[in-house]
Amino acid sequence: MTPQEALFKYTLRLGDNALIQGHRLSEWCSKGPILEEDLALTNIALDNIGLAQAFLKYAADIEGKGKTEDDLAYKRPERQFYNHQITELPIGDFAVTIAKQLLISAFEVPLFSALSHSTDETIAGIAAKGVKESRYHFVHSRDWCYRLGEGTELSHSKLQQAIHDLWAYTGELFEMAEEDTILLVAGIAVDLEELRPLWKETVATVLTEATIQIPEDGTMHTGSRNGVHTEHLGHILAEMQYLQRAYPDATW
Predict the structure, then answer these.
(1) Helix axes 94-115, 35-63, angle to 10 degrees
(2) Looking at CB atoms within 10 Å, which of 84, 149, 226, 235 has the fewest?
(3) pTM of this structure
(4) In angstroms, what is the C-alpha Rg of the chain?
(5) Please, are residues 109 and 138 in contact by the beta-carbon 8 Å criterion?
(6) Tens digits of residue pLDDT in 211-230
(7) How far apart are CA 231 and CA 207, in angstroms?
């Protein structure tokens, strides 16, 4: 893998994570438990879509084949997406969405904070904007974890189950692939293993205060670094890419 190929795949992965997570959160639009939360989740979805657009635009520039960010979003098959599997899981109930947002945002805050110092100026610039948004996403999910965990018996049990079900997807967040190793040497990428202790401490602090039991690490789901996904990503892409595939290169 050449440095350019590594940078392309790495930037794709960052864009794909934001794109798929944004798509999932958009499913809450008009379905939030209260109006304020409907707006909050929709805005977080828009933050992710904006981040995805920036990263995928840069990826298209790196590839140098005349593509746009829309081409990368709407014309790639499932095996060419590299988003973490946790982002593509169904939104479930409100507790599932909040638990997922906590686990993801607790990872993204230190990730984007570190990437804002990347030697790649474009990645650093996008990450500097992303870390500000991720901090808000984390605070939002953290505060809801407190409410759900210390709320009713039902809200507590739903949040506990959501954390239990999602935990096996968190190991993948810290996997280093060939592109990570290549770019780490150049000061572009981040050593994900170094982020794990901070992530664990952050998540453990929130869950403990929310009276939620922290799951033990066990067998973790993996594969997204090689384009292997759950059955859910195919359904997302079928919906997201339908118009572009039905009417190729259509313009408004």
Answers:
(1) 40
(2) 226
(3) 0.94
(4) 18
(5) yes
(6) 999 999 999 999 999 999 99
(7) 29
Q: How large a percentage of the chain has pLDDT more than 90?
A: 91
Angle, helix 121-149 to helix 192-209, in steps of 10 degrees? 20
Residue 124 tokens, joined: 């650093």
CA distance 83 to 99: 18
From CA 116, how far away is CA 244, in angstroms rounded?
A: 33
All domains of the chain in start order, with CATH: 3-246 (1.20.1260.10)
What is the spatial distance between Cα 42 and Cα 35, in angstroms, rounded to a whole number?
11
Query: Which DSSP string do the residues of 142-192 spell out, in sequence order?
Result: HHHHHHHHTS-HHHHHHHHHHHHHHGGGSGGGG---HHHHHHHHTTSS--H
Contact indicator for 166, 86 with CB cutoff of 8 Å: yes
Alpha carbons 100 and 155: distance in angstroms, whole number = 15
Q: What is the pLDDT of residues 86-108, one digit of tens each?
A: 999 999 999 999 999 999 999 99
Asked whether 33 and 94 are in contact (CB, 8 A), the reply is yes
Torsion sign (Cα): 6, 241, 131, 193: negative
85 φ/ψ angles, rounded to the nearest 5 degrees = -65, -30
Query: What tokens appear for 110 in the block?
Result: 């230190």
**Span 165-190, pLDDT tens digits:** 999 999 999 999 999 999 999 999 99
Q: Tell me the C-alpha distance between 229 and 61, whole Å.
A: 26
